[in-house]
Amino acid sequence: MRTPGRTLRSFGPAVVLATALAGCSSTGENSFQKLGALARFSLLGAEDAAAQPELTRAQLNQIPSATIALRLGNGPRTFLVPLADNGGYLNYLDTVGTGLVMLGGAVTGTQALGQDLQAVRHQQDDPVARPAPVAKWPGQVYRDYQFAQRSGAEYSITLLCVFERLARETIEIVEINFDVVRISEVCTNAKRQVVNTYWVEAETGFIWKSEQWLGPFLEQATI
Q1: What is the tally of helices (H) and strands (E) in the chain?
Q2: Strand pairing partners for 135?
Q3: Residue 174: pLDDT band with limits 50, 70, 90
Q4: What are the residues whose beta carbons fall under 8 Å from the beta carbon of 177, sequence distance 6 or more?
Q5: What stretch of H or E contains 36?
Q6: For a FRET experiment, which of 56, 143, 187, 197 has its CA 20 to 30 Å from that of 156?
Q7: b/e per residue, 20-42, with b = 16+ CB within 10 A?
Q8: How far apart are CA 156 and CA 164, in angstroms?
Q9: Kind plus residue range of the DSSP H or E element containing 212
Q10: In the beta sheet, which residues pair with residue 56?
Q11: pLDDT tens-digit profile of 136-148?
Protein backbone atom coordinates (compact mmCIF):
# COMPACT_ATOMS: atom_id res chain seq x y z
CA MET A 1 0.00 0.00 0.00
CA ARG A 2 2.98 2.34 0.27
CA THR A 3 3.76 4.35 -2.82
CA PRO A 4 7.36 4.34 -4.13
CA GLY A 5 9.50 7.12 -2.76
CA ARG A 6 7.04 8.09 -0.01
CA THR A 7 8.94 8.84 3.19
CA LEU A 8 7.46 7.93 6.55
CA ARG A 9 8.96 8.81 9.89
CA SER A 10 10.09 6.02 12.18
CA PHE A 11 7.62 4.89 14.81
CA GLY A 12 7.29 7.35 17.67
CA PRO A 13 8.45 6.42 21.17
CA ALA A 14 6.39 3.62 22.71
CA VAL A 15 6.50 5.12 26.19
CA VAL A 16 5.25 3.20 29.21
CA LEU A 17 2.81 5.73 30.62
CA ALA A 18 2.98 4.46 34.18
CA THR A 19 6.53 5.84 34.41
CA ALA A 20 5.45 9.32 33.37
CA LEU A 21 5.00 10.53 36.96
CA ALA A 22 8.70 11.35 37.03
CA GLY A 23 8.69 12.91 33.59
CA CYS A 24 7.52 16.45 34.27
CA SER A 25 9.98 17.45 36.98
CA SER A 26 12.79 16.02 39.05
CA THR A 27 10.39 15.42 41.95
CA GLY A 28 7.25 14.49 40.08
CA GLU A 29 5.41 17.15 42.11
CA ASN A 30 3.63 18.66 39.11
CA SER A 31 2.32 15.27 38.05
CA PHE A 32 0.90 14.54 41.49
CA GLN A 33 -0.75 17.95 41.53
CA LYS A 34 -2.41 17.26 38.19
CA LEU A 35 -3.61 13.80 39.17
CA GLY A 36 -4.70 15.06 42.56
CA ALA A 37 -6.89 17.73 41.00
CA LEU A 38 -8.30 15.16 38.58
CA ALA A 39 -9.00 12.74 41.44
CA ARG A 40 -10.94 15.37 43.36
CA PHE A 41 -13.27 15.75 40.40
CA SER A 42 -13.51 11.98 39.91
CA LEU A 43 -14.75 11.55 43.49
CA LEU A 44 -17.79 13.73 42.84
CA GLY A 45 -20.84 11.50 42.68
CA ALA A 46 -18.73 8.41 43.43
CA GLU A 47 -21.53 6.87 45.52
CA ASP A 48 -23.78 6.84 42.46
CA ALA A 49 -21.75 6.71 39.24
CA ALA A 50 -24.87 7.19 37.13
CA ALA A 51 -25.51 10.51 38.90
CA GLN A 52 -21.97 11.86 38.59
CA PRO A 53 -22.23 15.44 37.31
CA GLU A 54 -20.68 16.62 34.08
CA LEU A 55 -17.34 18.39 34.34
CA THR A 56 -17.98 22.14 34.60
CA ARG A 57 -15.72 24.89 33.31
CA ALA A 58 -15.07 25.98 36.91
CA GLN A 59 -13.92 22.46 37.83
CA LEU A 60 -11.85 22.17 34.68
CA ASN A 61 -10.08 25.42 35.56
CA GLN A 62 -8.97 23.86 38.87
CA ILE A 63 -6.93 21.21 37.06
CA PRO A 64 -3.44 22.71 36.44
CA SER A 65 -3.04 21.39 32.88
CA ALA A 66 -4.84 20.67 29.65
CA THR A 67 -7.38 17.89 30.18
CA ILE A 68 -8.88 15.53 27.62
CA ALA A 69 -11.92 13.27 27.84
CA LEU A 70 -11.84 9.75 26.43
CA ARG A 71 -14.81 7.50 25.65
CA LEU A 72 -14.58 4.06 24.01
CA GLY A 73 -17.71 3.22 22.06
CA ASN A 74 -20.72 3.91 24.27
CA GLY A 75 -18.76 3.39 27.48
CA PRO A 76 -18.21 5.87 30.30
CA ARG A 77 -16.00 8.91 29.93
CA THR A 78 -12.64 9.14 31.63
CA PHE A 79 -10.54 12.27 31.97
CA LEU A 80 -6.78 12.32 31.41
CA VAL A 81 -4.02 14.85 32.06
CA PRO A 82 -0.57 15.11 30.39
CA LEU A 83 2.25 13.93 32.65
CA ALA A 84 5.22 13.98 30.25
CA ASP A 85 6.29 15.44 26.92
CA ASN A 86 8.63 13.16 24.98
CA GLY A 87 9.69 15.17 21.94
CA GLY A 88 6.16 16.32 21.15
CA TYR A 89 4.53 13.03 22.16
CA LEU A 90 2.31 13.89 25.14
CA ASN A 91 1.69 11.10 27.65
CA TYR A 92 -1.79 11.37 29.18
CA LEU A 93 -2.94 9.33 32.18
CA ASP A 94 -6.08 9.10 34.32
CA THR A 95 -6.34 8.23 38.00
CA VAL A 96 -6.69 4.46 37.42
CA GLY A 97 -3.87 3.97 34.90
CA THR A 98 -5.67 4.35 31.57
CA GLY A 99 -3.34 6.17 29.19
CA LEU A 100 -2.97 7.70 25.74
CA VAL A 101 0.03 9.00 23.82
CA MET A 102 -0.91 11.94 21.59
CA LEU A 103 1.03 13.62 18.80
CA GLY A 104 -0.93 16.71 17.81
CA GLY A 105 -4.48 15.41 17.47
CA ALA A 106 -3.45 11.83 16.69
CA VAL A 107 -3.51 8.94 19.15
CA THR A 108 -0.15 7.17 18.77
CA GLY A 109 -0.33 4.77 21.72
CA THR A 110 -2.67 3.43 24.41
CA GLN A 111 -2.30 1.83 27.83
CA ALA A 112 -4.64 -0.47 29.77
CA LEU A 113 -7.39 -0.42 27.13
CA GLY A 114 -7.01 -4.05 26.02
CA GLN A 115 -4.83 -5.11 23.10
CA ASP A 116 -3.08 -1.77 23.05
CA LEU A 117 -1.81 0.35 20.19
CA GLN A 118 1.98 0.47 20.52
CA ALA A 119 2.88 3.27 18.09
CA VAL A 120 1.91 4.96 14.82
CA ARG A 121 4.19 6.06 12.01
CA HIS A 122 3.02 9.25 10.27
CA GLN A 123 4.04 11.06 7.13
CA GLN A 124 5.68 14.42 7.72
CA ASP A 125 2.67 16.20 6.19
CA ASP A 126 0.00 14.27 8.12
CA PRO A 127 -2.14 17.14 9.47
CA VAL A 128 -3.70 15.04 12.22
CA ALA A 129 -0.31 14.56 13.86
CA ARG A 130 1.19 17.92 12.85
CA PRO A 131 -1.47 20.64 12.74
CA ALA A 132 -1.83 22.67 9.55
CA PRO A 133 -4.55 25.06 8.33
CA VAL A 134 -7.39 23.09 6.77
CA ALA A 135 -6.76 24.75 3.40
CA LYS A 136 -3.33 23.09 3.35
CA TRP A 137 -4.42 19.55 4.27
CA PRO A 138 -3.30 16.98 1.67
CA GLY A 139 -5.87 14.81 -0.02
CA GLN A 140 -4.49 11.60 1.47
CA VAL A 141 -1.79 10.17 3.72
CA TYR A 142 -0.41 6.76 4.65
CA ARG A 143 -0.12 5.55 8.25
CA ASP A 144 1.41 2.46 9.84
CA TYR A 145 -0.19 1.28 13.11
CA GLN A 146 1.97 -0.98 15.28
CA PHE A 147 0.54 -3.56 17.70
CA ALA A 148 1.82 -6.42 19.85
CA GLN A 149 0.26 -9.87 19.80
CA ARG A 150 -0.43 -11.69 23.05
CA SER A 151 2.67 -13.75 22.31
CA GLY A 152 4.69 -10.53 22.33
CA ALA A 153 5.35 -10.58 18.58
CA GLU A 154 4.81 -7.22 16.89
CA TYR A 155 2.85 -6.56 13.71
CA SER A 156 1.70 -3.47 11.84
CA ILE A 157 -1.30 -2.43 9.76
CA THR A 158 -0.75 0.09 6.93
CA LEU A 159 -3.72 2.21 5.84
CA LEU A 160 -4.26 4.77 3.09
CA CYS A 161 -6.36 7.60 4.56
CA VAL A 162 -8.34 9.97 2.32
CA PHE A 163 -9.72 13.25 3.74
CA GLU A 164 -13.10 14.80 2.93
CA ARG A 165 -14.28 18.15 4.27
CA LEU A 166 -17.92 17.75 5.24
CA ALA A 167 -19.27 20.93 6.86
CA ARG A 168 -18.62 23.95 9.03
CA GLU A 169 -20.13 23.45 12.48
CA THR A 170 -20.23 24.90 15.97
CA ILE A 171 -19.51 22.44 18.76
CA GLU A 172 -19.69 22.94 22.53
CA ILE A 173 -16.95 21.65 24.82
CA VAL A 174 -17.47 22.28 28.53
CA GLU A 175 -19.49 25.48 28.19
CA ILE A 176 -17.43 27.03 25.35
CA ASN A 177 -18.43 27.01 21.68
CA PHE A 178 -15.90 26.43 18.92
CA ASP A 179 -16.33 27.09 15.20
CA VAL A 180 -14.81 24.13 13.37
CA VAL A 181 -14.70 22.21 10.12
CA ARG A 182 -15.84 18.59 10.34
CA ILE A 183 -13.53 16.37 8.30
CA SER A 184 -14.08 12.69 7.56
CA GLU A 185 -11.19 10.36 6.91
CA VAL A 186 -11.70 6.98 5.25
CA CYS A 187 -8.72 4.65 5.78
CA THR A 188 -8.41 1.44 3.81
CA ASN A 189 -6.19 -1.44 2.81
CA ALA A 190 -6.94 -4.75 1.10
CA LYS A 191 -8.56 -6.20 4.25
CA ARG A 192 -10.30 -3.37 6.10
CA GLN A 193 -11.91 0.05 6.01
CA VAL A 194 -12.20 2.42 8.96
CA VAL A 195 -13.62 5.93 9.28
CA ASN A 196 -12.21 8.66 11.52
CA THR A 197 -13.80 12.07 12.09
CA TYR A 198 -12.12 15.31 13.18
CA TRP A 199 -13.58 18.67 14.27
CA VAL A 200 -10.84 21.09 13.26
CA GLU A 201 -10.15 24.80 13.75
CA ALA A 202 -9.84 25.96 10.13
CA GLU A 203 -7.12 28.58 10.57
CA THR A 204 -4.72 26.59 12.79
CA GLY A 205 -5.60 22.95 12.16
CA PHE A 206 -6.05 22.36 15.90
CA ILE A 207 -8.33 19.35 16.49
CA TRP A 208 -10.82 20.07 19.27
CA LYS A 209 -12.67 16.77 19.00
CA SER A 210 -12.10 13.49 17.19
CA GLU A 211 -13.41 9.96 16.73
CA GLN A 212 -10.47 7.66 16.01
CA TRP A 213 -9.78 4.00 15.25
CA LEU A 214 -7.35 2.50 17.75
CA GLY A 215 -6.97 -0.95 16.22
CA PRO A 216 -8.91 -4.11 15.34
CA PHE A 217 -9.56 -5.07 18.97
CA LEU A 218 -10.65 -1.74 20.49
CA GLU A 219 -13.83 0.29 20.07
CA GLN A 220 -13.79 3.68 18.37
CA ALA A 221 -12.42 6.38 20.67
CA THR A 222 -14.08 9.77 21.10
CA ILE A 223 -11.58 12.34 22.38
Answers
A1: 2, 12
A2: none
A3: confident
A4: 170, 171
A5: helix 29-42
A6: 197
A7: bbebbeeeeeebebbbebbeebb
A8: 25
A9: strand 207-212
A10: none
A11: 999 999 999 999 8
